[in-house]
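Catalogue entry: protein

Sequence with per-residue tokens
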Amino acid sequence: MRLLVVNAGSSSLKLRVLDHDDATLAERSLDWAKGSTFPEDALAGLPAVDAVAHRVVHGGDEFRAAVWLDDGVRARLADLRELAPLHQPRALAAIDATTDLLNGTPAAACFDTGFHATLPPAAATYALPAEWPRRRFGFHGLSHAYAARRAAELAGRPASELRVVSCHLGAGASLAAVAAGRSVDTTMGFTPLDGLVMATRAGSVDPGLLLWLVEERGVDPAELADALEHRSGLAGLAGTGDMRELLEREDADARLALDVYLHRLRASVAAMAAAMDGLDALVFTGGVGEHAPAVRAAAAAGLGFLGVTLDGAPNAAARADADIGAAGAAVRAFVVTAREDLEMARQVRGL
């Protein structure tokens, strides 16, 4: 089965064609500016495929595993747009465009929320009134699922034996506690705004502060939403969400932004380990996780009490799937290239 994997992000479109052995036959990455339509030539020249796999960020309560797309499923996904306003509309546009361009080739939706459907009630429930939404969904599930499984392969142990903290660190960032191959806790919640400090998103914020801004400062909810999505996080602290730039700067704002980022990251790794009563492997993936050895080293430096120790030279040199842990460390440490496409392919073949 040849598969076209479609990953429609908030500002980019990534396409990859995989053969039956998951070898890459073709790939393409395109800019998809805000407000623009699906690129008309996106599929030009790509090999013929037997099925399509679409990454969809939010599956809500209904979709907890990959599902074949039809008009009914598409309509229900559209109802979830307000829960992931940056990503859901893009996924729907990609679904519509590729369906037309590929003349009805079978297509499936694979959900970032799906991997976290195994969260136990204690981790999946907000302490709110019964008439309000109380479910924590979690996101980046396709990346976390692959990273945890790949870490088990690199460690040479069955996934069923491991307690893994997967760190997906990119423009958006989240952690997952993966015990025996199942997600048991994560840092994002009802929406992708919760948890870690991100490039432009605030992460966890006291809701009382947000209420105060609305009630006492007269901040409009739409302005508040825009600020939390686009003008907070590293950008709010230092004027840019680009980790590469921050690591090169030496000014006070850049140092504060990095300190806040790392403080939240280390504390959250420890919380994920606590959810599993320990830790066997720590995995870094995503753009920052894969390409910022200084961030990995600084994060691990505060996690020695968990048994995490990195080897400086392998960490500095790591560019692909690599073991970066110190010899004899109680916790294995790896860098894993993000391959949501392989997880999506596995799910669609399962269908």
